[in-house]
Amino acid sequence: MNFFETLHAISANAWVYGGTFVLVLSILVFVHEWGHYIVARLCNVRVEAFSIGFGKELFGYNDRNGTRWKVALIPLGGYVKLYGDVDPASAHHDDTVKDKDTGAARPMTAEERSVAFFAKPVWQRALVVFAGPAINYIFAIILLTFLYSLSGKPVTPPVAAGVIVESSAAVAGFLPHDEVVEIDGKAIASFEEIRQEMMITLDTPKHFVVRRGDELLEIDATPKKVEDEDRFGFKHSRGLLGLISPRHAIQIDTIDEINGQPYADTESRRRALAGLMGQRFTVSMKDGDEMESLVVEPQAAFNSLIVSPEADNPESSVLFLAGKPASAFVKYDPFPAFLRAVEQSWVVTTGTLEALGQMVMGTRSASELGGVIRIGALAGDMAQQGIVALIIFTALLSINLGLINMFPIPMLDGGHLVFYAVESVLGKPIPDHVQEYAFRFGLVFLVFVMVFANINDIVQLVL
Question: Do 141 and 172 share a domain, yes or no?
Answer without folding.
Answer: no
